[in-house]
Specification:
This protein is mainly α. The chain is 88% helix and 0% strand. The radius of gyration is 19 Å and the shape is globular.
């Protein structure tokens, strides 16, 4: 019984740990590549990312509640309750994602001035925020749907999806930031666009797996 319980914990904990490691790897790669451009780009993204940090805090609070109810309903095989609870969280996440998207698109300067008065950093940050806002919808919905997968015994699938997202993000960072393979050199906006595309791809894959399962 003890070994069986340990194996179940490891099957859940190891994929989630690997997933968090890969997310940290993306941030490290972003910092390395942007640092190769100039210090202002790196500093601006670091400040602009505080908006994403606040968004992720809200998202984490909602998904923790989702995980609790999804696990409970899945254990009872109450799939109507599972869909209802996950759908409710998804609705709130979508609304919050839209609000953050609108804020980053229409008032990016105001958001940057919360963290700095340096006009150069503000200008860089505006370029980043106007693009990264699109990723909030993708990443928000992605986290909700992956919460369903994790609590229904498919944590390993989530790790694979995260690995794909990380690899695509890093590759697109190189291409879009520096302008390789015929693409324009987008610099700081390229880093944001790479994140948007990678999260969008992760969402598509997750929806496909949910549809199959």
């Amino acid at each position: 019984m003890g070994n069986e319980f340990t194996n179940k914990i490891l099957k859940l904990a190891l994929p989630i740990t690997a997933q968090q490691f890969m997310l940290a790897l993306v941030s490290a790669c972003d910092a390395f590549m942007l640092g190769g451009l100039n210090q202002n780009s790196l500093s601006a993204v670091s400040l602009a990312s505080q908006i994403s940090f606040v968004f992720n805090l809200i998202l984490t609070a909602l998904t923790i509640g989702e995980n609790m109810f999804v696990a409970q309903y899945y254990g009872k095989r109450d799939f109507d309750g599972l869909r209802t609870s996950a759908g409710l969280v998804l609705r709130y996440v979508f609304i919050i994602s839209i609000l953050f998207l609108l804020a980053t698109f229409f008032i990016p300067e105001t958001l940057m001035r919360l963290f700095t008065n340096d006009t150069i950093l503000i200008d860089y940050g505006i370029k980043y925020l106007k693009v990264i806002g699109l990723s909030y919808i993708f990443s928000g919905v992605l986290q909700v749907l992956q919460g369903i997968l994790k609590n229904c015994g498919y944590a390993g699938r989530c790790t694979i999806i995260s690995a794909v997202v990380v690899c695509v993000n890093i590759i697109l960072n190189v291409i879009l930031i520096y302008g390789y393979m015929g693409f324009p050199r987008m610099e700081i906006a390229g880093s944001a666009l790479a994140t948007v595309i990678a999260n969008g791809l992760g969402l598509v894959i997750t929806i496909y797996i949910l549809y199959l399962k």
